[in-house]
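Quick one from the shared queue. A colleague (R.T.) flagged MFS transporter as missing a structural entry in our internal table.

Convert sequence to structure tokens.
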Amino acid sequence: MYNKGLYNDWVPKPVQLLLIVLLLAVVMPLGGVYTGNVSYVVNGTGAMTEYFMWANYATTIGMGACMPIVLRMKMRFKVRDKMTFLLVLLGLLSYLNSTTFDPMIFVFSSLLIGFLKMMVTIELFLPLMMMIGNRGMFYGAFYTFVLVLNQISAYYAAAISILYNWQHFYVIMAVACFVLALLHWLLMHDKYFALKVPLHYIDWLSVLLFVSAFMFSAYVFSFGKQQDWLNSKNIVNASIAAFVSFALLAIRQFTLKRPYISFKIFTKNNVQHGLFMLLMLGMFLGTTSIQNTFAVGVLGYDQLTNAKLNLLMIPGLILAGAIAIFWFKKEIPLKMFIFSGFSTMIGYSMVMYFSMVLEFNYENWYLPMFLKGYGMGSLFISVWFYTLDKLEMDDMLAAIGLVLVWRTFLAVGFFSAVYAWFQYRFQVVAVGDLAVYMDGMTITPQNVAANMKTIQLNAIIIAGKKIFGYIILAGLGVLIYVFTHHFGKERFEYARFVKILSGKSALARKRLRERKRFIEEIKETTGSAV
């Protein structure tokens, strides 16, 4: 017996929808680390922050590694058995994180959590997409819900860590997973989704190579600044290991009858341009590190106040989701929607460039965070839709893991690392430039120590402004690119126009005959008049 639904027939439809929303609310923000309480975990464990940056990247890498095999895993097991087992495992891993002080356990548990939660998420994608019908409208609703949820979870992670300690939030997430596992054991049907398929077709060596390539890359992005990049033997060795692992992964795919990853879709025009736009999205999202440095290091915000800043993005995210649903419902071309997303990201960068001063107050954050929320929501939805548009299901599933890792880890991780390097270099230059005010005339020797902090904070602001200035210039180039890109429309019209001019289409031949007849009639009429 097969059943493409999730729950028993006797469970009311509204209750089924409520359970799906509860699953999304618990599973989607679940991870090995939470951005809201990272500083408290660092203080509690005594480990370096870089380990938890690595763990944060590991969650995305685990999700990407699972994506190519997720459909086969879905069809291999009964939905109730699989969901219950996965939720129990996720709860145990979350509880493990609450009891350990070893940062490497956080890294590996984050990788496993990402891998397992993708299996749970795919069970929710299909019924929601069938319910909504339109893939674009589904993205508009789904990504808005998930992005809003991530901001809320980061805030509560910080709030609970302050009220109790950092371990409590992990325990709460573990208990939520156990409760959902019990509910779904009682309410889910005990049938297969479709024809049972074997697991021995999965090439686990390719999975291992995929994880190895990107985990070494994540190590480079996380520890590069701390170990002085190429001056560190560890960074050089990790870079070589990442390159070799990915090369072996690519070579192995050409030798397999059923490859783990397909590179075929990367020859498609929309995928290539979509990857470039996702890279540019990472350029803007990487500014979070500059924003955190300014908010915490310069303005002196605590972690809870800093987490509240992310809540200010929620109105922009909701607006982007509402516009996306309307846009896809009316089937309006994507160009101007994507253009509006990049425009608001540039607006966010411009506001930060002109407003970053020591007197910056909390109300000044409303506008830039609203713009950032709208830009992030609109680009997550529209660029992801455009990148995967008109792809066959098999090709998409075989390559979506790479695209996911590219969007969420490689693009953001690369630019975050670049910004960290430039911020340090620009800050050193700024301190040298500001040293002219420490000559004993402007600041007396007795007051040098009192003013040293102000000079250092101004150096941080100058470095941040410089980076935002370069981002604005690059963003203007992105706007020109988006405005001139065809998005699958102009190229078709151009080809049709060429056919009409050359008379190669049936419509063109008909128009030429009508034009010739009309000219002859004009000539006859003109001759009679003369």
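Residues 490-501, 518-530 have pLDDT under 50 and may be disordered.
The radius of gyration is 27 Å.
Added to the table.
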